[in-house]
Design brief:
Layout (H helix, E strand, L loop, with lengths): L1 H15 L8 H19 L2 H17 L7 H19 L2 H17 L7 H19 L2 H16 L8 H19 L2 H17 L7 H19 L2 H17 L7 H12 L2
Helix pairs in contact: 1-2, 2-3, 3-4, 4-5, 5-6, 6-7, 7-8, 8-9, 9-10, 10-11, 11-12
Length: about 260
C-alpha cells in the first residue's frame, strides 16, 4: 500500500506540473488513474475507484481521437467502470463501459494486436449485460463479439485456446436457455476446436476433455445414439488419463467415467 500511495503522490505532482494543453498530460492523468485503480484493488473502497474513474475521464477529455493512446484511454476507463460495476452493481457503469469499448473496437484496425483482447473484453461485458437483462439479444451479441475475437487471433497464438474457452462458455449459456440440439452442437464444435489447438500439457486440457464428455452425454440424452455414448466415454477416459494425480477435478472426472460406463 505504501508503494501505491507514493505512486499516487508522485503521479499527482507530475499532473500538477503539466499544462492543460501539453501532449503528455493525458498519459500522466492515465498513470494517476491507474495508481488509484491499483489502490482500489487492495482496499475495495468505492472512494478509490470513484477517484480513478474521475481522473481517467479527465485523461480521455484531454486526448484527441487521433492521439496514439486514445484507444488506451477508452479501454482503461472501461475497465475501471467495470471494476465499479462488479463492486457496486450499477447498470449505468456497465452500459457506459460497453459504449467506450465499442468505440475502441471501431478505432482498431483488423491486424492490431489489441483487437482480440478488446473484443473479448467487450464480449465479457455483453455477457454480464445478459445476466442483468435476461435478453437473448445481449447473449447473441456477446457470442458474435467473442467469435470475432477468436477469428482475429493468429492460429499459432497461445491466446487462441483461452478465447475459444470463453466462447464455449457463452455458447453453453445459450444452450441452457434454448435446449436446442443445434446450439449444443455449436458448444461441442467449439470445445473440439479448443482441444485441437490446446497442448496436452496445458493445465485446462483435462477440463476441456471432461467438458466434451459431459456435452456428449447431454447429446446422448437427446439422441439416444450409441455414437454419443462412445464419445462421452472416450472423452471421459482421456480426461482421467491426462489429469495429473494432484488435479483438483480428478475425483469428479473419475465419477463421471464410472457413471458413463454403467449406462
Amino acid at each position: 500500500m505504501d508503494d501505491i500511495d507514493k505512486a499516487i503522490k508522485a503521479d499527482g505532482k507530475a499532473v500538477k506540473s503539466t499544462k492543460n494543453h501539453d501532449p503528455v498530460r493525458m498519459s500522466r492523468l492515465n498513470n494517476l488513474g491507474n495508481a488509484w485503480q491499483s489502490r482500489f484493488q487492495l482496499t475495495c473502497s468505492l472512494n478509490d475507484i470513484d477517484r480513478a474513474i474521475e481522473i481517467k475521464q479527465d485523461a480521455l477529455a484531454a486526448a484527441q481521437e487521433g492521439h496514439p493512446q486514445y484507444v488506451i484511454c477508452l479501454n482503461t476507463l472501461s475497465i475501471a467502470l467495470m471494476n465499479r460495476f462488479d463492486e457496486a452493481g450499477s447498470f449505468d457503469d456497465l452500459s457506459h463501459a460497453i459504449s467506450l469499448t465499442q468505440k475502441a473496437v471501431s478505432m482498431l484496425s483488423h491486424n492490431d494486436p489489441e483487437l482480440a483482447p478488446t473484443l473479448m473484453h467487450l464480449a465479457t461485458m455483453l455477457e454480464k449485460k445478459f445476466v442483468q437483462t435476461g435478453s437473448m439479444k445481449d447473449l447473441d451479441e456477446a457470442i458474435t463479439t467473442s467469435q470475432k475475437a477468436v477469428e482475429s487471433v493468429a492460429v499459432e497464438s497461445t491466446e487462441l485456446a483461452m478465447h475459444l474457452m470463453t466462447l464455449c462458455t457463452m455458447l453453453q449459456k445459450k444452450f441452457e436457455q434454448t435446449d436446442l440440439l443445434a446450439d449444443l452442437d455449436q458448444v461441442i464444435a467449439r470445445n473440439r476446436a479448443a482441444e485441437i489447438v490446446m497442448h496436452s500439457n496445458h493445465f485446462l486440457y483435462p477440463q476441456v476433455l471432461h467438458s466434451l464428455s459431459t456435452l456428449s452425454h447431454y447429446r446422448l440424452i437427446k439422441t439416444e445414439s450409441l455414437e454419443d455414448l462412445d464419445n462421452a466415454v472416450d472423452f471421459a477416459e482421456q480426461a482421467v488419463a491426462y489429469a495429473p494425480q494432484n488435479y483438483m477435478e480428478l475425483p469428479s472426472f473419475l465419477f463421471n467415467l464410472i457413471e458413463l460406463l454403467a449406462i
